[in-house]
Write a structure and sequence with these properties.
The structure is a single chain. By secondary structure, the chain is of the alpha+beta class. It has one domain. It is built from 3 helices and 2 strands, in the order αββαα. The protein has a two-stranded antiparallel ribbon with strand order 1-2. Strand 1 and strand 2 form a beta hairpin. The N and C termini lie far apart (51 Å).
Amino acid sequence: MPATEKTVRISSKGQITLPRQFRDILQSDIVRIVADQGLIKIEPVRDAAGSLRRYAGRYVSLKKIKGKVWEEAVGEKHLRS
């Protein structure tokens, strides 16, 4: 498959618009950004948690879950200290 290339501008907020052709290639609206030896890769996330994230907010408050997870992580860090 030949390489696909497009030049895009980074906004003042550090954002880019990913062109439709690349979104179609990714086949996911959740991505992982990886920096490796000066190259930036955008990889699709296709695991169940990443794929279902947009639906989870309808049933469970993601903000509450993130808060609980954060509290647990901070608590465990202090217990280890």
